[in-house]
Design a protein that fits this description.
The longest helix is centred in the last third of the chain and has 44 residues. It is built from five helices and no strands. It folds into two domains: 87 residues, no CATH class; 46 residues. Helix 2 packs antiparallel against helix 3. The model has no long low-confidence stretch (mean pLDDT 83). It is rod-shaped. By secondary structure, the chain is mostly helical.
């Protein structure tokens, strides 16, 4: 959903006259059409304004989770309610680095675990073989 207010470069509390002027000077036909359809009809504007607060909150939450401005959000209408990449809450790069570190630690642990298990298995097999040679030489 588009942030019509941002695309028209007006505040949410803009008067009807300011909205009409912003729509008239808008060059993007899709935004202009959406604005006329939504902001010029009082009942639709009221519903849009209610959703606007919710979508802004979701954009803030997404930014705090580090999901804003990832490559799949850029340039998309879905990015309209995201916080700017320069904002203090946009932590995508930080989150990506933390996940990369966690993956490296996990992979290292898995390699160490494999070596330890393989070594333990080899030691156990050697011990069992030596015990059998001592206690059951008739098997050999």
């Amino acid at each position: 959903m588009r942030d019509i207010y941002r695309r028209l470069d007006i505040h949410v509390s803009a008067s009807d006259a300011d909205i009409a002027r912003a729509i008239a000077r808008c060059e993007n036909q899709a935004v202009k059409s959406a604005a006329e359809h939504i902001l010029c009809v009082e009942s639709r504007k009221r519903e849009y304004d209610q959703l606007y607060g919710t979508l802004t909150g979701i954009g803030l939450l997404r930014a705090r989770m580090g999901l804003s401005h990832a490559p799949y959000w850029r340039g998309n209408v879905a990015n309209d309610f995201s916080i700017s990449a320069d904002d203090e809450y946009a932590r995508y790069a930080e989150l990506k680095a933390k996940v990369a570190r966690a993956v490296r630690v996990h992979d290292t642990w898995q390699q160490v675990r494999r070596v330890l298990l393989w070594g333990a298995g080899l030691s156990l097999a050697t011990s069992v073989g030596m015990a059998l040679m001592v206690f059951a030489p008739e098997l050999f």
